[in-house]
Design brief:
By secondary structure, the protein is an all-beta fold. It is 3% helix and 28% strand.
Length: 155
């Protein structure tokens, strides 16, 4: 299991996260913020389980979430995006290079709205990302429901 949590990756010249795991790996990206990368999250794996949860991918220079051109057609089987916000990607929020088409990954409770991030990638008090993360997640440090993104808003 490869676990990334409460991570900010911004202004990268390439992928925010390039997931090139092999075999039946499990990758969990939780409460992270990926801003102005190309793409935000790049998945180049044919098998495994790849989860994005409570994560913001914003203003990607290309696609927000991109499947590699050599990937199989099993997007729904291996990629799960839940309680996340993929917004304002230059090209597409979700895209498969293999299919040359927009895709819809498995998962639920996703949005595509301006997350209202501060200059340090925190959340403004009016951010729609506050208290709307996965209810099964641990509570934020202030005791409220989990926020979406790397930096929880302090009430």
């Amino acid at each position: 299991i490869f676990h990334i949590e409460r991570t900010i990756i911004a202004d990268s010249a390439s992928s925010g996260i390039s997931d090139r795991t092999s075999s039946a790996a499990t990758v969990d990206i939780v409460n992270s913020t990926l801003v102005k990368n190309d793409p935000g999250y790049y998945l180049d794996a044919m098998t495994g389980t790849h989860h994005l949860r409570n994560t913001i991918i914003s203003s990607s220079k290309g696609n927000g979430v991109e499947r590699a051109s050599n990937a199989t057609d099993n997007d729904q089987a291996i990629l799960n995006v839940s309680y996340s916000n993929v917004w304002n990607s230059k090209n597409n929020n979700y895209y498969s290079s293999r299919k040359s088409a927009v895709i819809t990954p498995a998962g639920s409770n996703n949005v595509s709205v301006n997350p209202l991030l501060t200059d340090e990638y925190g959340l403004y008090s009016i951010s729609p990302m506050i208290d709307v993360g996965d209810p099964a997640s641990a509570l934020d440090p202030d005791g409220t429901r989990a926020d979406i993104g790397a930096k929880p808003y302090q009430h």
